[in-house]
Write a structure and sequence with these properties.
By secondary structure, this protein is an alpha+beta fold. The protein is 21% helix and 25% strand.
């Protein structure tokens, strides 16, 4: 378990197969660098209340991942104790079910090309 925390909490967040820091880039025939759109969903993680703020807020996540996976990722990234609670909310409105797919949330509640998720250590909304 310590190895997983080190790779997620350390400086190399791209080590996790569910998250990518940047879009893939390649060169076209004229030699210009062109960014290729990946099939990841951009999520914006915002701290609420007394939750610690993440240095990096925007993440590209596999759309097939579940909300429970995102909660686990935040837990590991912030190096929370396993007994510490973490609550996740969509657009400051409701807590999604842990088995809900990121793709579904993005399609229904995404705006400006990203899904905004708020996290906190105590219940806030809903």
């Amino acid at each position: 378990m310590a190895e997983a925390q080190g790779s997620v909490g350390g400086g190399d967040e791209s080590a996790d197969p569910g998250i990518q820091n940047d879009q893939i880039s390649k060169q076209n025939k004229e030699g210009e660098v062109v960014k290729k759109k990946t099939d990841k969903v951009d999520i914006l993680l915002k701290a609420t209340g007394s939750a610690p703020i993440m240095k990096k807020k925007k993440w590209a996540v596999d759309p097939n991942k579940k909300v429970a996976w995102v909660i686990d990722f935040i837990h590991k990234y912030l190096r929370f104790d396993s007994s510490q609670s973490l609550f996740l909310y969509v657009n400051q409105a409701f807590a999604p079910a842990p088995d809900q797919e990121i793709r579904n949330l993005f399609e229904c509640y995404g705006s400006d090309g990203k899904l905004i998720l708020h996290y906190c250590t105590s219940e806030a909304w809903g």
